[in-house]
Amino acid sequence: MRRLLSIAAGVAVVAGLTGLVLTRPQHVDPAELDGIAPDLVRGETVFFAAGCASCHSAPNSEGEEKLVLAGGRRFETDFGTFIAPNISSDPEAGIGSWSALELADALIYGTGPAGQHYYPAFPYTTYTNMTPEDVVSLRAFLGTLPAASQESRAHEVGFPFNIRRSLGGWKLLYLEPGWVVDGDLDVQQQRGRYLVEALGHCAECHTPRDGLGGLSRDQWLTGAPNPSGKGRIPGLTTNHLDWSEADIAEYLKSGFTPDYDSAGGEMAEVIENTSRLSDEDRLAIAAYLKVVPVPANDATTD
């Protein structure tokens, strides 16, 4: 019996150590950023395509106020309430003192400067596909925006979701770099894929999730329940959205549908961002949406 207990204890120790190794925060290899010169124009495009202000500007801010990334917006989920942090250029309250490498760690692996796991309310499962050039350029552009001294507030997350180490296990399941829509895409469609799958995080709202909060990639962009509990976020695959590419591009520019309705709610904020993109980029998004496969088990239409 004593020997069995010793064996069991040894197995438990090995399992625990293995778990610690597998769930440790990951970091970007510094060599990946070596020699990359930031491009502020490129960084501005990334900023709007990635929708940074939509989450990190202060609640109820409008116009130029949205460039002050003081944080404070609340996002209620089944796992707790997450409060967007200050990511302004303030070196103390914000991320003004961060290096491009530290930003890369956050965006690509969901890892903070102190080696902590970030919650996936921050959509790093999308940003993980960003290029090093875009990360470096975004870091430079963020440094040109106003500083805000407002301190970030702690998330309101209870047990067991407040155990951040467990997020390492979640990442093993869901932090999956690579494209959902693959195959023979032309240059325009590839650009659209990058804007949607690496920057725009459209899937975060328009794709259903499983019980652990991970995106159901086999139901990519087929629509999802609204987190508010009211209604459903529509699908973007061709069986849900039958607009022409020109109609989609116009909607992303002006917010007007082909029937002259207008975007409302959170989508209005998305349009504020996509309206700042080039006509070519909006058309690229539209071209990508036209080649997103319709899952065999999703015959519904909106």
From TrEMBL:
It comes from Ruegeria arenilitoris. InterPro entries: Cyt_c-like_dom, Cyt_c-like_dom_sf, Cytochrome_c-type_DH. PANTHER family: ALCOHOL DEHYDROGENASE CYTOCHROME C SUBUNIT (PTHR35008:SF8), BLL4482 PROTEIN-RELATED (PTHR35008). It comes from the Bacteria. Residues 38-293 form the Cytochrome c domain. This is Fructose dehydrogenase cytochrome subunit. Signal peptide: none annotated. GO terms for molecular function: electron transfer activity; heme binding; metal ion binding. The keyword Iron applies. It holds the Pfam family Cytochrom_C. The lineage of its organism: Bacteria, Pseudomonadati, Pseudomonadota, Alphaproteobacteria, Rhodobacterales. Keywords: Heme, Iron, Metal-binding. Gene3D superfamilies: Cytochrome c-like domain (1.10.760.10).
